[in-house]
Specification:
Blueprint (H helix, E strand, L loop, with lengths): L11 H29 L5 E5 L6 H17 L3 E5 L6 H8 L7 E6 L1 H8 L11 E16 L8 H10 L5 E4 L5 H13 L5 E4 L3 H9 L5 E5 H9 L4 E5 L25 E9 L4 H15 L2 H9 L3 E6 H21 L7
Parallel strand pairs: 1-2, 1-3, 5-6, 5-7
Antiparallel strand pairs: 3-9, 4-7, 4-8, 4-9, 4-10
């Protein structure tokens, strides 16, 4: 090739050398900027956005985590509630936030459910976020009043089938895991005539059972737990993979004779997609360390949650599995898509 070289043209070695010098000249200031910025992180308040109203399960976990994370990273961590739109408002807000590590999302199962429930979304669950960690899950529970006279799910189904038009089930809003599991139960057991009464919140759905407005409640375990312990309602089955630690007499749905019936409400921490990997890694490390503390686990268990402590990769495995799963459930239940 040497004899075809143009006179005066730079050699390949010289071009590579000049390119390397140029790259160093460009990259070095960038590295100098990123290094100190990361070392100083956080130099202002970190905001954890909860896409739900205050007082709910996700809000409780966010505030517990914020207090511990604040001490671990040496900076202020605050919680901001941005409820509405089935959690889409808050999730869309974080998806569009600067990827600087100062705006995080405390997501729930709505993150995986909403892609199949809404016609359009302000976020892409696979592209718009960098997962940090999965925090905890809470199983749901099917419950009745003791006066109904049934002690198992099979007994309730048999009673409801005798005259389904006289029975109904209360649930939290459309798209929540308790609402979806109720529709799955009705579809599988041929109870299409059993009405679903949807309430604005889980507390109201449980109150409908307590006031005998409905005969069956499908809801998150946490608000039902004290009522079950107090004997005001009877838990027929939990929808987690295992029995709840202090309700050993209540079987899982699988144990009750309903295989492949696991519905959990999970919580996870995520950042906008363009957040620097080193910041995501630090938040992941600190969050998992917090969840490993015995006192933190005990506090969450007492609140009705089971600590999962999965890393970001583990959380995305759930998202990859559950987005199509919930999309199929919603389609099979013929739930009309929301706008």
């Amino acid at each position: 090739m040497g004899k075809f070289a143009v006179a005066g043209a730079p050699t390949r070695r010289r071009v590579i050398g000049q390119a390397g010098t140029l790259a160093l000249g460009v990259a070095a200031p960038s590295l100098l900027r990123v290094g100190p910025a990361f070392a100083a992180y956080p130099d202002r308040a970190i905001k954890i956005v909860v896409p739900n109203t205050p007082g709910g399960p996700s809000d409780i976990i966010a505030r517990i985590l914020a207090a511990s994370l604040q001490g671990a990273i040496g900076g202020s961590v605050v919680v901001e509630n941005k409820g509405g739109g089935g959690s889409n408002i808050g999730m869309g807000y974080v998806a569009r936030a600067d990827g600087d590590g100062y705006t995080l999302l405390l997501a729930t199962s709505a993150y995986a459910v909403n892609p199949g429930l809404y016609e359009t979304l302000p976020y892409d669950p696979f592209k718009d976020f960098a997962p940090i960690a999965e925090l905890a899950t809470s199983p749901n529970v099917f419950a009745v009043k003791p006066e109904l006279g049934v002690r198992t799910m099979k007994e309730f189904i048999a009673l409801a089938k005798s005259d389904p038009a006289k029975f109904n089930v209360s649930t939290p809003p459309v798209g929540t895991t308790p609402q979806l599991e109720a529709e799955v139960l009705k579809a599988r057991e041929g109870l299409a005539k059993m009405a679903s009464i949807v309430f604005a919140g889980g507390g109201e759905a449980l109150q409908a059972l307590l006031s005998n407005t409905v005969q069956l409640s499908s809801g998150v375990l946490a608000p039902a737990h004290p009522q079950i312990k107090g004997g005001n309602v009877r838990g027929l089955a939990v929808t987690g993979e295992a029995r709840w630690h202090d309700l050993p007499d209540i079987p899982t749905m699988a144990e009750a004779g309903f295989p492949d019936f696991v519905f959990e409400t999970y919580t996870a921490l995520l950042a906008p997609a363009k957040t620097p990997p080193e910041i995501v890694a630090r938040l992941e490390k600190e969050t998992l360390a917090i969840l490993a503390r015995p006192e933190m686990r005990e506090r969450l268990v007492q609140g009705g949650f089971q600590v999962q402590a999965k890393d970001g990769k583990g959380h995305m495995a759930r998202v990859v599995r559950e987005v199509p799963m919930y999309r199929n459930i919603i389609a099979q239940a013929k739930i009309e898509k929301l706008r």
